């Protein structure tokens, strides 16, 4: 059955379509070539509407151990302030840490059709996938966290060949059904276990005598040589530390030209200038991104209000406990491969540091020229819940609104920021790049994020509205794989989305030392660690396996 969406203004950057009025035809969950005038079983009038592919969130903490711990910690957040009966509704709600169900509903209501969980500890892969399977409607996938795992640090300490490292990375991606690899404070989580409270990029992990720079070199190169579409997803060392811009720039250098994605860079773009020894280094990072085409970033914008920070970075979270609001926190170690920390935060526009953080994120968005290399995130829930995206989009698209908001923050922050002098306003075309086309491209999802023939029919239809926050809060229609799932922001159907993975090849010789490592050190047997095809299927998980590039491809 062919459905024709007729008369909408299409923004489809991947196919060079910029606001032109075009029909879109859907058949069997896919977008198909126009069969010709009049040839459709059903026609839906889209005149006056803006049509884009479904939104894709490249970095959002929506599943896994730390999200559950955050829910446990944030009992006061269980009241659903977004619902009409906020005083009554409890479990299954929450703003900073909504339940899995509510997470899927809210993304769909906002016009998003995919969200990617960026921090899966290998030993938590099973529960992470089961939880992701519980997110209704949207597609998902996850990046496995490496770089503080004993096995990799040991390989690096012993000077293993790159080929062995590649085998291990590929084995781990397959075993944990990952779409990418993330490294969080490389070496720093391991160092924290040995009572270190900071680790510089050329410092040394106490037990293994490996530098973070070496971890970044080895992993960026491994993913490139394996042909994994998504480059190494890096949460740099020294998160939140004034002056950390030097570490962030050194991390770009450590990639040695291999593709690298720096995540939540707002938290990594700080200088030490001024009376308070805390300043914006956004211009320096933007300059580095603009001049290094191998670098992509997501921002991790903060928005004012209550949230909870949830991170694999135990070292940073232990430091952040001093700012906990309300005053409670969790930091824990997990197996031999990672950690996590939860610290509630209330970002205040009357606080100089918070106000400056807000301006730094916006400066990054506005000073990085290429929208294909900058992604819209709040690092949900770290900078703000993802439900803040519509307001963030308005801040980027509407200079008057931005400057009015700027006028309300801490006066000292207003004085030192260059934000007020930046004239740039994002266009709808650029928003479609940043939230659809570019995320699909950088994750290797060839049939998502665009509206060409053959693409999955994940389609968002907005009422064009000069108030961009209102426009992006509740789209008129959302189609997921061709079926309407939300209307005027309300969910009307709850199909299950897909889980996206890649499976690079590896030499099975790596399994022998791995088995010994599991026998000697881990609480889970080697035979039980890897997720099998059948158990994923039994859990109702539909895998989409995406191809790797030919080995050695750039
Ligand atoms: Zn992170
Ligand atoms: Zn994150």
Explain what the structure shows.
- Helix 5 crosses helix 7 (212-226), helix 9 (282-291) packs parallel to helix 11 (352-367) and helix 12 (389-397) crosses helix 13.
- The strands form 5 sheets. Strands 1, 2, 3, 4, 5, 19, 20, 21 and 22 form a 9-stranded mixed sheet that branches. An 8-stranded parallel sheet has the order 6-7-8-9-10-11-14-18.
- The longest helix has 16 residues, at 352-367.
- The protein is 32% helix and 22% strand.
- It is globular.
- 55% of the residues are buried.
- By secondary structure, it is an alpha/beta fold.
- It has a domain at 55-407: TIM Barrel (Alpha-Beta Barrel), CATH 3.20.20.
- The mean pLDDT is 95.
- It has 19 helices and 24 strands.
- Residues 59, 61, 118-119, 264, 379, 382 line the site of one zinc ion (ZN).
Topology:
Blueprint: E1 2-12, E2 17-27, E3 30-32, E4 42-45, E5 49-53, E6 55-57, H1 65-73, H2 100-109, E7 112-120, H3 125-133, E8 139-145, H4 150-157, H5 162-175, E9 180-184, H6 188-193, H7 212-226, E10 232-235, H8 245-254, E11 260-262, E12 270-271, E13 279-280, H9 282-291, E14 295-298, E15 305-311, H10 314-320, E16 330-334, E17 338-347, H11 352-367, E18 374-375, H12 389-397, H13 399-406, H14 411-416, H15 428-443, E19 459-463, H16 468-473, E20 477-480, E21 483-487, E22 490-491, E23 499-502, H17 511-521, H18 526-529, H19 533-538, E24 543-546
Parallel strand pairs: 1-4, 1-5, 6-7, 7-8, 8-9, 9-10, 10-11, 11-14, 14-18, 23-24
Antiparallel strand pairs: 1-2, 2-3, 5-19, 12-13, 15-17, 16-17, 19-20, 20-21, 21-22
Helix pairs in contact: 5-7, 9-11, 12-13
This protein binds zinc ion (2 copies).
């Amino acid at each position: 059955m062919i459905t024709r969406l007729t008369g909408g203004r299409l923004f489809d950057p991947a196919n060079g379509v910029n606001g032109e009025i075009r029909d879109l035809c859907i058949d069997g969950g896919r977008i198909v070539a126009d069969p010709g005038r009049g040839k459709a079983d059903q026609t839906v009038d889209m005149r006056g509407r803006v049509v884009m592919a479904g939104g894709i969130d490249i970095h959002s903490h929506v599943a896994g151990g730390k999200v559950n711990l955050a829910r446990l910690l944030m009992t006061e957040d269980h009241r659903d302030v977004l619902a009409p009966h906020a005083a009554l509704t409890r479990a299954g709600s929450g703003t900073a840490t909504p339940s899995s169900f509510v997470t899927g509903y809210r993304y769909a209501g906002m016009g998003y059709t995919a969200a990617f969980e960026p921090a899966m500890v290998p030993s938590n892969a099973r529960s992470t996938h089961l939880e992701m399977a519980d997110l209704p409607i949207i597609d998902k996938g996850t990046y496995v966290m490496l770089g503080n795992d004993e096995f990799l640090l040991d390989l690096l300490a012993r000077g293993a060949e790159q080929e062995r490292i590649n085998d291990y990375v590929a084995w781990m991606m397959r075993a944990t059904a990952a779409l990418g690899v993330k490294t969080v404070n490389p070496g720093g989580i391991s160092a924290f276990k040995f009572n270190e409270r900071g680790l510089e990029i050329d410092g040394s992990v106490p037990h293994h005598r490996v530098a973070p720079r070496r971890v970044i070199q080895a992993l960026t190169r491994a993913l490139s040589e394996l042909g994994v579409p998504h480059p190494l997803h890096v949460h740099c060392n020294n998160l939140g530390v004034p002056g950390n811009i030097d570490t962030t720039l050194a991390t770009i250098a450590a990639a040695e030209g291999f593709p690298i994605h720096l995540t939540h860079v707002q938290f990594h773009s700080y200088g030490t200038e001024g009376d308070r020894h805390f300043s914006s280094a956004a211009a320096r990072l933007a300059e580095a991104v603009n001049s290094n085409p191998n670098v992509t970033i997501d921002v991790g914008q903060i928005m004012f209000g209550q949230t909870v920070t949830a991170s694999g970075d135990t070292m940073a979270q232990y430091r952040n406990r001093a700012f906990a609001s309300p005053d409670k926190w969790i930091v824990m170690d997990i197996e031999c491969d990672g950690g996590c920390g939860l610290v509630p935060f209330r970002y205040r526009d009357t606080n100089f540091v918070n106000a400056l953080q807000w301006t730094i994120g916006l400066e990054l968005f506005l000073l990085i020229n290429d929208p294909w290399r900058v992604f819209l995130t709040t690092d949900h829930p770290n900078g703000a819940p993802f439900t803040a995206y519509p307001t963030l989009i308005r801040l980027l698209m509407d200079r008057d609104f931005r400057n009015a908001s700027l006028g309300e923050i801490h006066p000292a922050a207003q004085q030192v920021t260059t934000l007020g002098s930046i004239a740039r306003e994002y266009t709808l075309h650029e928003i479609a790049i940043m939230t659809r086309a570019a995320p699909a491209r950088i994750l290797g999802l060839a049939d998502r994020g665009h509206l060409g023939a053959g693409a999955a029919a994940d389609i968002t239809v907005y009422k064009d509205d000069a108030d961009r926050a209102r426009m992006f809060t509740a789209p008129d229609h959302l189609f997921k794989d061709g079926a309407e799932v939300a209307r005027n922001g309300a969910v009307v159907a709850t199909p299950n989305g897909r889980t996206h993975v890649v499976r690079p090849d590896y030499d099975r010789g790596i399994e022998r030392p791995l088995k010994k490592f599991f026998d000697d050190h881990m609480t889970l047997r080697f035979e039980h660690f890897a997720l099998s095809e059948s158990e994923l299927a039994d859990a109702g998980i539909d895998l989409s396996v995406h191809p790797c590039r030919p080995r050695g491809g750039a």
